[in-house]
């Protein structure tokens, strides 16, 4: 019992800073949207298009470097600090070509943006936004490497402070560049891209300072020498990171595609869907943060072959995530109309959003299990089945089922957005079941191989 209580405390200390950091990062996009809207409708739309494209890239890149987290945690458990430094530097070496590729992709938007945006004013804003954002790519990708490093070292507070600094820098930079204050050019919505780029560099500067000077990282000789490129370690990081990146992108793209599929529905239904989706995304930060904490604890225990403690960490995480999920579900149920009212004063939109939020309760509870098991499997360095689970749950089950229920009368009368939200509940539930079976198999095989079953 004492060991389980220890895991509760350790998971809470890891998960809370990650949760705060995620909410701060999400707030940056919210601030961009809010301030761009003050410049005009075209500016708001252009920032929306640009930030949506960037969000897809960010999901993939963040997932790709999540391999650093369990790798660092496992070697930290063994006290192998020089190996940690080598792996983190390999991640930074990988970040260099990734930053260059993304810089080019964002700057060459004239080849693909006109296919997506017809309005010339919106196109100009979106293009300027992506151009400004491109100059922050080296910084944000470096942050994506150092962030899981700080998590693996059990000091996620560094990323929380970095995200807070980034938000504090972003707000005044937005104001100065959108509206052309203090002699700076008036860039409109495109100024948000430049402001976000500046905030990325501020975030990286804070992370570098912490990983260089803070006692939590002092044992790791990350900056004392330059490790050469090691092909085997890079392949190892990519072998873990790419399936995570693809799974995160598959899951995120499914939610994005739902929005595209219902684009032909009445405007009030689309608006209600967007409100419910935004609230659900913020609520998802709780199981996501717990997932990150479980990855660190499991990998750290496995580094010293403490198999029982690894299992205890997973069960403690699931219990905590379920408890948090129940509280969130109760809050959404009781305050769904009040939450929707924060976004709109249209009674019809509020009613639709409040109804859809009832569906979100179902997949929030399923997410509490699915997300924590994803974190556990990452701690075991078992990531391929997570990708398969995402493909099956979201692309083979969720999206087709949503189309059938939402837009056809093959089974029932067309349910519109409700049909897609019901399919999301089913998709997350399918993912949770697959991951539960995989986790049980991975733990059983591991302990059987060590003569513990």
Question: What this model shows, in words?
Answer:
It is a single chain. It is globular and about 55 Å long. The longest helix has 37 residues. The protein has 453 residues and is an all-alpha fold.
In terms of topology, how is this protein built?
Elements: H1 2-37, H2 41-64, H3 68-78, H4 81-107, H5 113-116, H6 120-134, H7 137-152, H8 157-179, H9 190-213, H10 231-261, H11 267-303, H12 307-341, H13 347-379, H14 384-407, H15 417-449
Helix pairs in contact: 1-2, 1-8, 1-11, 1-12, 2-6, 2-10, 3-4, 3-7, 3-11, 4-6, 4-7, 6-9, 7-9, 8-9, 10-14, 11-12, 11-13, 12-13, 13-15, 14-15
Q: Any descriptors?
A:
453 residues, mainly alpha, 15 helices, 82% helix
Summarize the structure.
With 453 residues, the chain is an all-alpha fold. Helix content is 82%, strand content 0%. The protein is globular and about 55 Å long.
H/I helix tally: 15
Category by helix and strand content? mainly alpha
Low-confidence stretches: none
Give me the count of strands: 0
SSE topology string: HHHHHHHHHHHHHHH
Q: What is the beta-strand fraction?
A: under 5%
Shape by Cα distribution: globular
| Average residue-wise pLDDT | 88
Q: Please outline the major beta sheet.
A: none
Helix percent band: over 70%
Using only C-alpha atoms, the radius of gyration works out to: 22 Å
Report the span from N to C terminus.
21 Å
């Amino acid at each position: 019992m004492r060991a389980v209580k220890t895991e509760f405390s350790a998971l809470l200390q890891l998960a809370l800073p990650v949760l705060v950091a995620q909410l701060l990062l999400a707030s940056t996009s919210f601030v961009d949207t809010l301030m761009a809207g003050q410049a005009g409708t075209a500016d708001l739309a252009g920032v929306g298009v640009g930030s949506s494209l960037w969000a897809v890239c960010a999901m993939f890149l963040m997932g790709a470097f999540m391999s650093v987290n369990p790798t660092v945690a496992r070697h930290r458990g063994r006290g192998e600090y020089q190996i940690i430094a080598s792996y983190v530097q390999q991640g930074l070496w990988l970040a260099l070509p990734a930053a260059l590729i993304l810089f080019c992709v964002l700057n060459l938007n004239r080849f693909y943006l006109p296919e997506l945006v017809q309005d010339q004013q919106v196109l100009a804003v979106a293009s300027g936004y992506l151009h400004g954002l491109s100059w922050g790519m080296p910084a944000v990708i470096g942050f994506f490497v150092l962030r899981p490093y700080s998590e693996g070292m059990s000091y996620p507070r560094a990323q929380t402070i970095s995200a807070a600094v980034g938000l504090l820098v972003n707000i005044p930079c937005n104001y100065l560049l959108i509206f052309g204050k203090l002699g700076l050019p008036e860039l409109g919505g495109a100024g948000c891209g430049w402001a976000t780029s500046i905030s990325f560099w501020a975030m990286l500067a804070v992370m570098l300072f912490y990983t260089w000077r803070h006692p939590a990282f002092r044992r790791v000789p990350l900056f004392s020498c330059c490790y050469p490129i090691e092909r085997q370690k890079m392949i190892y990081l990519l072998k873990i990171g790419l399936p995570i990146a693809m799974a995160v992108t598959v899951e995120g793209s499914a939610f994005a595609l739902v929005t595209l599929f219902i684009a032909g529905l009445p405007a009030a239904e689309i608006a209600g869907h967007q409100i419910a989706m935004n609230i659900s995304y913020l609520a998802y930060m709780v199981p996501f943060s717990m997932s990150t904490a479980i990855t660190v604890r499991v990998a750290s225990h496995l580094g010293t072959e403490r198999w029982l403690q690894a299992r205890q960490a997973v069960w403690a995480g699931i219990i905590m995530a379920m408890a948090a999920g129940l509280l969130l579900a109760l809050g959404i149920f009781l305050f769904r109309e009040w939450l929707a009212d924060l976004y709109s004063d249209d009674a019809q939109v509020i009613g639709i959003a409040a109804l859809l939020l009832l569906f979100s309760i179902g997949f929030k509870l399923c997410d509490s299990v699915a997300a924590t098991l994803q974190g556990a499997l990452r701690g075991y360095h078992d990531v391929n089945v997570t990708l398969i689970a995402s493909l099956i749950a979201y692309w083979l089950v969720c999206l087709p089922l949503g189309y059938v229920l939402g837009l056809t009368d093959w089974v029932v009368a067309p349910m519109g957005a409700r049909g897609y939200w019901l399919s999301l509940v089913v998709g997350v539930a399918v993912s949770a079941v697959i991951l539960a079976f995989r986790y049980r198999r991975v733990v059983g095989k591991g302990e059987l191989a060590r003569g513990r079953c």
